[in-house]
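Q: I'm writing up a methods section and want to include an example of the input and output format. Could you take the sequence below and give the corresponding predicted structure tokens, formatted cleanly so I can copy it straight into the document?
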Amino acid sequence: MMKTNVSEFLAASDRISASFGVEGAKALLIRPLSAATLSVVHLGRSYGDGDDPIFLSPDDAFLVMLYLVDVDHCDVWPDRPSAPLKRYPEGSICLISLKDGAAISVRGHFEALAFHIPSAHLSELTDEAGEPRVDNLVTCRGIADQVIRNLGAALMPMFDMPDEVRDTLLPHIGLAFNAHLAHRYGRSPTQYLAASGRLSPTQERRVKNYMAANLSRDINIDEIADASGFSSGDLASGFMKTTGHSVREWLSTNRVTRAQTQLRKTGESVASVAQLCGFRNEDAFIEAFTNSVGVSPANWRLRNRH
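A: Here is the clean output for your methods example:
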């Protein structure tokens, strides 16, 4: 059974709650592997025009905010004017590093799940779970991430569950959450090809993990190379020598495979499936799907829908 270090838990959750001015916020402690703890805090309050900005102190950690309602806030800096207020839609996320701290100004009703992720989680994923090494997470604001949204929905009822039930489930959810962050938002240290010009098995897995986690976006080889620690040229040649396929071919094949699952199991329109699977538009999806499978998406769905 998962053991709880109360002082460690209170330090993380109370610090976040105090920063947002929320008293009595419910919180979860998750220890997915060994020592590093992931704290999840359910925050909610309303902010008026006279409320002070929210300051988050420097910390060797990352913060993910999953917005449970539409939220209006802006970044605040000590040496320049604040950014304009921006609306972050319900279900979207922000991911930031707390290395240098952060400050935001919120207006109106605010409700979110705050995930506090110490950097030690990234090392544990490599050392204990065998994941390819990443040493940083990319900052992003207001993006849609269905995986984090689904994990957040799974966590919501657990704030009120009995400990003995909750503690058997939390480590699995925490590990899935951290692995997803590493796969989709991780940045690897500088990498080099082997003397053969090929990727190592670990490098290949890291590249494929990143591409699979980002299939719903229109990613290019420069972005993939940056995330996995390679130059674009080394990645292109190394991936081809290792897999026998170009990066573009791998993306197209796996997008078509994902589209087949969506077409078979959901009622989403062809245009929606194209967007969900990262194709530029519906026409590009139909062309790629037909070239790969031999029939159009609509005809394939008619033959294979269960």
